[in-house]
Amino acid sequence: MHTGRLEAFSDGVLAIIITIMVLELKVPREAPTLAVLKPLLPLFLSYLLSFVYVGIYWNNHHHMFQTTERVSGGILWANVHLLFWLSLVPFVAGWLGENHFAPTPAALYGVVLLMSAVAYMILQQAILRAPGGNPVLASAIGRDLKGKLSPIIYAAAIPLSFFNQWLACGLYVLVALVWLIPDRRIERALAGSEGANAGGVQNESR
Amino acid sequence: MHTGRLEAFSDGVLAIIITIMVLELKVPREAPTLAVLKPLLPLFLSYLLSFVYVGIYWNNHHHMFQTTERVSGGILWANVHLLFWLSLVPFVAGWLGENHFAPTPAALYGVVLLMSAVAYMILQQAILRAPGGNPVLASAIGRDLKGKLSPIIYAAAIPLSFFNQWLACGLYVLVALVWLIPDRRIERALAGSEGANAGGVQNESR
Amino acid sequence: MHTGRLEAFSDGVLAIIITIMVLELKVPREAPTLAVLKPLLPLFLSYLLSFVYVGIYWNNHHHMFQTTERVSGGILWANVHLLFWLSLVPFVAGWLGENHFAPTPAALYGVVLLMSAVAYMILQQAILRAPGGNPVLASAIGRDLKGKLSPIIYAAAIPLSFFNQWLACGLYVLVALVWLIPDRRIERALAGSEGANAGGVQNESR
Amino acid sequence: MHTGRLEAFSDGVLAIIITIMVLELKVPREAPTLAVLKPLLPLFLSYLLSFVYVGIYWNNHHHMFQTTERVSGGILWANVHLLFWLSLVPFVAGWLGENHFAPTPAALYGVVLLMSAVAYMILQQAILRAPGGNPVLASAIGRDLKGKLSPIIYAAAIPLSFFNQWLACGLYVLVALVWLIPDRRIERALAGSEGANAGGVQNESR
Question: Rounded to two decimals, what is the model's pTM?
Fold first, then answer.
């Protein structure tokens, strides 16, 4: 099974998730002044953070499947599982923004981030354990410090929300900023492997 | 006619169906406590079940069209017919969840599942009966026990809903679980056919 | 410019149009009985008709661009113009259904069908008049009886709506049924041209 | 990294943005007469203008990535940044239309247009500055008069909205009309470069 349709379907779902979130920003019906936009500010900030998170997942998903050519049924379902948790982001983002970053919504936001991160790790493992393995991805990930630390920070932020929700939300922002730095590991590993492949092709064509 | 755009259009429609269902989970405007989420639980469960069902259809659709290279006008319309019934899933899922799995919504959910299964069988037959046939798909499906039993179970669950809707919903969950096991038949048949093709190509290139 | 992204963007927009229409079918909040679904029947019928129409446009669009390899800026904008009119289908379909096929909504539905048909003809002309022409499409269309009659019927149905809206809606259904019969002209023309191309390739490779 | 998935994801997001805007045109529940449509006219005009703007961005995005084969992490994020600002178009379009082109919404509409234009310039610079450069795009853009003037006009229209919002909206329409003229520069540059490539291929194959 080629990865083409899995990527197309994931791109579609992620594109819809990232875009329908803006529907939570309801057009205000009151006077057309800046004052009526002020209550929308928390919703806007929660939209911005969630947009960045979905963007990060799309970016990493894109990089990961660059190293993959064929998918098994297990990988297909691990991917649907990831999309399920990400599909809940618009709901928890809306709840978080509507309630001006209150403790319970902040904790629930963390739960969805945590489950998405776990689902991503399961998908990554399914790709790595596929028959034939995936040495490019394996070497690109390396110790995968970012990937392993993120769910730990989310897990810590969930109970923290009930003590100080601003600290919890600060942790979500922090993890997003760490991931915003593009993952050059896979780009480097791919470049290396393409060089090797090109060499192989040259050898074959001789 | 190549299958490319049919797959792209179907991926788009299925991606939207699977994602707009979450819009039924309206962000609660009351106090930001876990208590206000409790009434959303049936809707969440109905969302989860429907997400799995749309995921199954995408997965099977993906597998089926892997065996197909060209489509006729009949196949295009059989596909649009399938998408029509699946497009009603968000509506019946919302009605089922809103009403906490009441008998009539449970029956209507079964009707949409039944019609989708029938539409899928019509599409499968259209592909099998296309000029030239489709031996890979034919051998992959075999007796197609799962495909033939599912609509029978849905048809039984519809009247059953009015006696015991939990049993009916239990049957929907059961069929979903049976399908969750990935359909290795097509993967095996494709692997076999690719081996044969590769052999053929080698023969030709000699 | 290749047609790839034009097709992908059009597939996306058409997939969204065809799917968001179902959001007009609001989940009823009253008792979970069949009786509360009855008022939704006109909306369901209007949804069904509009789903078929968008399906027809996608189908014909798909066939037309099968004959086209490169697009100019003019074709891109003619395509965006077509998508604009089709994007209004969910709105007029909702208005038609909500008002149980009242005269004014029936007329407005006809206006959107008419403008979409005109936009489709403009797009078709833009493709035919592109440098190099498009002999496959030209021969496939032939006299284009269906394409020329449809807008005339819509134009007649618009004033007719105010005398007998059922007759007008009947005309919309009739035209849809005529188009449902797949357009074998392009399939035949393509098959002919591919045979010719294959011959050409064989000649070249000798 | 190939541009394929970046284009697919952008096509998806732009297709959703351009289509969900029509959801702001709420189906009126009052009498089915033309009179109830009249208050929707400003919303319709704002929808039309925004549809054209998103169409222009898709068109230019399409042209720009025709000249690009590989993308870096920086280009991916510059693209997500552009999509973020464009995702706010449905919100500001709705606010502008709902309030019959009042000063503050007109100014906010200009802010989103300005930020989108700036984000587009950043993306263009990221592509031009990628390793190896992009001589086709560079020669196609030339002095980029349209690209440099547009943000200046938006920036001027924002404060102007508070004195005469019609003048500001007129400027938005004017810029849209200027961009509607398809960007033949890139088409010409591509045609030239393909001629050169074809020559190169011929040389190689000798």
Answer: 0.87
